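In the current project phase, the collection of sequences with tokenised folds has grown. A representative record is quoted in full directly below:
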Amino acid sequence: MLELKKIKKSYKTGDFIQHALKSVDMKFRKNEFVAILGPSGSGKTTLLNIIGGLDRYDSGDLIINNLSTKKFKDNDWDSYRNNCVGFIFQSYNLISHISVLENVILSTTLSGYKASLRKKKAMEALDKVGLKNHMHKRPNQLSGGQMQRVAIARALVNDPDIILADEPTGALDSKTSKQIMDLIKEIAKDKLVIMVTHNEDLAKKYASRIIELSDGEIMKDSNPINDKEKNDESINIKKTKMSYMSAINLSFKNLMTKKGRTFITSFASSIGIIGIALILSLSNGFKIKIDEFEKNALSQAPILIQEETIDTSSIGKEKKDNLEEYSDTKTVYALKLSDTPVSAHINKIDNNYLDYLSKLDPNLISGIQYGYKTNLNVLVKSDKTNLISFLGIATSLPKSDDVSQVITDNFDVIGGELNNDMHNIYLLLDSKNRVSEEVLKSLGYEDNVSFDDIIGKELKVVLNDDYYKELSGYFIPNTNYDELYGNENNITLKIAGILRGKEDSDFSNFSGTGILYNDSLMDYVVDKNKESSIVKAQESKNINVLTNQEMTDEEKETILSYLGANKIPTSINIFPKDFDSKEEIINYLDKYNKDLKEEDKILYLDQAKLITSLSGSIMDAITIVLIAFSSISLIVSSIMVGIITYTSVLERTKEIGILRAIGARKKDITRVFNAETLIIGLFSGILGIVITNLLIIPINNIIYKLSDLEGVAMLNPIHAIILILISVTLTLIGGFIPAKIASKKDPVIALRTE
């Protein structure tokens, strides 16, 4: 089944050439026990290594079951060693950091058997050599004879055709040697066993055939094969492959035998990760603090679009008083402004512009607040029933998917409660619990009023058809307010709550004071009033149906809006979600004004532009620092991991030889060391994140004592995951070259390493 044809092998050391094998011709039967005798240097170990595919012949041919190996590639030799050959070494060559069972399973792993079958075959092989009860021990817990039995079990587990034994009893006592030789002789009954030995007595006692070798040549063959003996069998060599999980398991077991060094190595590798993680934690924390500040600032400073742009420097100027800010006093006071805003530009807000705004990405805004031209006919009952107009003294709550969230982000509810019911309205006060005296008088109060008196107060909205009566072609308002107040068609409103801008906010500077109502109220009123008699009459005439005077088209549009035929706002306040959203909103608003004449443009007021610029500069600076730091860490970590992996390669050189001997490919060896660097990288990354989270505690305490900023440093979980992936990537990069070096080691030389 095995034939060597004119095999030659030489070794060159400098100018000296040693001819280990000199044109050796040799044939072997399928079942026989062959002992190759010879003194040291005769070439017998070289012959065994060539037969086993560990070493390559210079010329000639090695034929297995009629298959020539002349054109074998590395992968073919790997598969041959795993499927066709089982090695028994003098020094056992077991991997010390895995169990007896795992040493035997390793060969079946490379053969591609399923996990359940791998274990079954390994246990059967150990049972055959009498070591089933010792399968969970480590090799160093066994005697020499037991370790050799493990080596035999490993050689047998894949049921190879050929067993190669290199001085199998050389390190054993006579009693144990006899047991091992009896076992090998039993194996030779159905396999080809080739044993290399210098013990002539041992060869004569056990071998069925003895071949004597001297100076690389055959001197004597006790039972040569004649030409009449033929073998018509052929072989099919399966490809070998070590799975990633097997490589990880092997490397993990190795690392666990050196826990202390693994920890120190991982800690050293994690230092760069810790540094970056701390910077990201601080950056993330400060970003959150900045975002909180931005959110408050943006809530206080929405993008303002008004029918008339105003000089904001005049807002908030009032006479001095002795009222306390943010007090617990349950009284509403009258506010008297010292001057009024000055008009600067007329914004022509129309349906076209409103349609443009409606297409603004809703993900960019937390809410939009409208003030309308549409008048609400509201009746208030105090000493006598009065008619008030909401036009100018009321505005809508911010329109949002969650109105209550927008309000609670920016206001304190200091009286009553908040909900989205259209029948509820709210009184907005300034920081000193004041509201415009015009509003108070409209509600029927001449002076200061307690919260208890004002919360729950009812107002009635009268619809057009009940309020306006036609007389000779034009319409007259009904002034019988007592009668109107009790009309069953009225919409009853109730002051449900009192709001005040938060203490750390200047929101009232932008929203002023007054009455807030849900936008759904205006939707309901417009839907009713646009079908009213007065609106239909006004739409069909060019005269004002209230004054019987002629009108321009613009004046007609204004009176229709006033009567509730449509919802044309006089002011629009847009609340962005964050600074990035604000920029996108501004770009969107600017796009509308492109190519328009100056008088046709819709101008807006952005109070937060300076803050945006400052915030952007800070974050850019932090980003630059992080990039620089990451670059340094990348270089340092890669070099360090490369050195560590190369050290591991040197320590595990013999293991490399063992793996190659049982059929591991070069890429499998690379995979083993890549798995080791992956484990170190993963552990380093996790260790770095754990240490970072521990360091964050004292860092936050120090920052709090220095700046009163609480909980600044906080590591984003996404950043933590990214840093762990970076750690793994760095270690894989750093260990790539050493892993390649490991894969190229000569298996014969590697096996001799101690």
About this structure: The chain has 25 helices and 28 strands. The longest strand covers residues 16-28. The first helix runs from residue 44 to 51.
